[in-house]
Input
Amino acid sequence: MTAVAPAVPSATRHPSPAPRLSRWLLRLHRPALCAWAGLVVLLSAALLWLGGPLTDASAAAWEQYNACDGASRCAYDQPSIIRYKEVYSATTFAVLALPFLVAAWAGATLTSRELETGTAQLTWAQSVSPVHWLTATLALPATLVVAGTGLVVTLHHLAWSAGEGRIDTAKSWSDFQTFYAGGPLTVAVALLGLVVGVLVGLLLSRSLPALATSVVATGGVFAIVHTALPYLWPSVTQVRNRVQDAPSGAGILVDEGILTSTGARLPNPYCGSDVFPDCRAMYDKLDAVGYYRDFHPIAHYWPLQLVATALTCAVVAVLVFAAYRVLKSRTGGAPRGASTTV
Output
């Protein structure tokens, strides 16, 4: 009688654990991470220097200059004043350049290069869904970009505040470079540059074209936000009659011109005061009775910043959704596939 050997159950095959994408992304983009950290540290140190010793030295020099009271010869520390202006201009430019550097890197490296070299497709074949890959690709850099940009923006605002009222040539809050470099709007624009770069990389899958397109697209969206900024919050109107001359409310200008006897608004002819006969005749011909000026005072600083930031974040959300739709069209899978642990 032949004994029947018991059946040996076949070994159950378990899928290999998904790679930890966060660690893999950090290793893959280590040079960019080191460059970003170095840039943030260097810029932060420069802003601390600007808001501390440089501001104090420049303010002391201006006190010396103002104490001269018109004297023909006066000793004051002019190099400190010039040094403050130069460092302020350089650091402001550097802060405003961060969103475009992020866009260039994201467009050239974050998704386009992985698609171009086949690294992304290899990752998808190793128990990592395309959706999870894109989520990790967006989330980790976004955290680093927001943290780094938020730090330098905060330090820039503190440095500007330290010189307010102490340095005669300090930039006004309404100076657009100062306005952007010291508020959360620049953080939102940096996040926008990252998402634009990711989306363009998915669309083009080639590094150099994606780099250029990402920078241009980020600049275009930023230009739209800049154009819309004065109209995102109700402005203040200042009115004066012709005898008082044109109003000079300080802040972000929205509109200005002349008022007729019927209350109609006409564009500013930029002629001058009534003391000039030609201007007086022109105003009489236009039936002008006064001037108006619509502007944003300093009290509107945070409302403008927050509304513009919210608008930019809404654009970011739309672009993120578009990125997932593009990924779905490339892979043929649902944009909300099974997730794995990052």
User: Anything to note?
Assistant: The first helix runs from residue 21 to 28. Residues 221 and 312 are 9 Å apart (CA to CA).
